[in-house]
Amino acid sequence: MKITLNSDIQSSDNLSIINGQHNDSEPVGIKVAAIDESLLLHQTVDILLAGNTDTKCEVELTGTCLQYRYRDNRLKDKCKIIYVVDIIGCSVSDATDESKVVLNIIAYRIRRGRRKRKSVKLVFSGYGSRDHNYEEAIKWKRTIMSLNYGPYGITGHGRHKPLMFIVNPKSGRGRALKIFEDFVKPLLKESETLYELQITDHANHALELMRDTDDLTRYRAVVVVSGDGLLYEVVNGLTKRMDTITEERLPVTLGIIPGGSGNGLAHSVNQAFLNHQKAVDSIYDCVLHVLQGHPLPMDLVRVTTEQNVYFSFLSLGWGLMADIDIESERLRALGEPRFTIYALYRSFALRKNRARLSYLPTQTDSSDVPVLAEPVGKDWVTIDDQFIQIYASYQSHINSTAIFAPEATLDDGIIWLLFLRSKVSRRQVIQFLLALEKGRHPALPYVDFVPVRAFRIEPYNNIGKMTVDGELVESGPIQAEVVPRMATILTR
Ligand code: ADP
Ligand code: MG
Fold it and tell me: Could you tell which of 171, 313, 329, 342 is best to mutate to test the pocket of ligand 1, judged by most ligand atoms within 8 Å of the CB?
């Protein structure tokens, strides 16, 4: 479906993509969930232009677009469009002239591959009294807000509850707090979103908060501004609460805004929304997910070792890529490129480790997952070999540059298991790492890539590093099993 535009449009902003189709060379775009062309509101008002001049303006609102036409200072006819999904909020205020009322509509539109703030100021003056003009402006505000925030507008969809933001000032290059101040806080105000802010002051702080905060149902969601490591703390703090253990569901919805050096989940959420297009602006896109989103179900994976149980939303690794996750920490100051740079270095010094790998393919009917101490069932496949690595993910992206499981969705119930056996050469490992950036590695003949429900690694020694969501865990026998839809995450 395409939006049809009136033929008298002379200049149109932000028309780079309509329902997935580009009309110019802009590389990326937004998904317009449902095109709704029915006219909701129509009005002749004044528009405030630069230099504080105002001029007559025809405005139309449909379920999809705000369209406005006016003659600019140089007497050129203009017709502009703003997609409703890009509108973050509206404010209504009195103009300097007594009876006039200004409706300020604020959007974050895509311009040349980035989101830019745009404010459109419409002046309501045609109703004589100030109160009538005010009522009319409020009607526009309510209608616009209800399109993005549900029928109750600013208080709909649980928006009377605050979001809890957790910011890690030490994540990535230490930019998370600045990202919160510059990219999140202004939009919280513009969207009239209630929130509380927690800044971590030590590792494990987020885990403690999630484990120990009394009533989490007070919050609409817990939103992490950091890398995957902090969300891992949040998830594992939540699963240590008594209320989660009995219900097998996290007691609060999650949200993610990328602020770290490993931002796999943020990119996977963007991918889920964009449906195979590239994200426009990963930070702003994620802010829009958090502010306009609804809780969508997401699988977690229960990871069991001989000593511990962890809950994972992203990955489990042993060998090459686990080593890269951990050893590239020393390049933290580089930000996300640390993974690629260290990966190339490590492929010249390949390590191999022997293990027994067992997995339960998705194709079998069985869902029999024994405890780690018991042998696996007959539907499981077992391979005994030397491995360069075994790596699994349940999300499409494991960081901004690695599309690990191109077909993965947030709640498909699948663990994508990848292994490189000892026969794989150094040249092939480099080829694999390069293919991973485009998600083309599943086609490589020497890469084993299988959808499974559960798997187990039993290493012959405890030398190789093991990681869960990029964080180091103890080496030794380890088992992973999908827990379908155990979490929910804010997604548009
Ligand atoms: P990155 O993607 O850059 O690694 P993460 O969100 O994964 O960012 O955070 C890295 C680590 O920082 C996490 O393991 C977390 O435990 C730790 N951490 C959180 N808050 C603090 C803090 N205030 N000081 C030091 N470390 C912290
Ligand atoms: Mg991390």
Answer: 171
Rounded CA-CA distance 310/299 in Å is 14
Structure tokens given for 222: 């817990």
* CA–CA separation, 422 and 178 (whole Å): 44
Residue 115 sits at the vertex; the CA angle it makes with 109 and 116, to the nearest 5 degrees, is 75
Taking alpha carbons only, the member of 194, 188, 224 closest to residue 209 is 224
Residue 228 is among the residues annotated as catalytic for this protein: yes
pLDDT tens track for 403-446: 999 999 999 999 999 999 999 999 999 899 989 989 999 999 99
Query: Around Cβ 348, how many Cβ atoms within 10 Å?
Result: 9
Task: Give the burial class of 186: count Cβ atoms within 10 A of its Cβ; 0-12 exposed, 13-18 middle, 19 or more buried.
Answer: middle
Give the separation between CA 92 and CA 101, rounded to whole angstroms: 7
Q: How far is the CA of 284 from the centre of ligand 1 (A)?
A: 22
Report the predicted TM-score, pTM, of the whole model to 2 decimal places.
0.88
Whether residue 283 contacts residue 257, with contact meaning beta carbons closer than 8 Å, is answered with yes
Nearest CA-CA partner of 285 in 193, 187, 196: 187
Question: Could you tell me which residues are beta bridge partners of residue 319?
Answer: 389
Using CB atoms within 10 A of its CB, is residue 46 exposed (0-12), middle (13-18) or buried (19+)?
Answer: buried
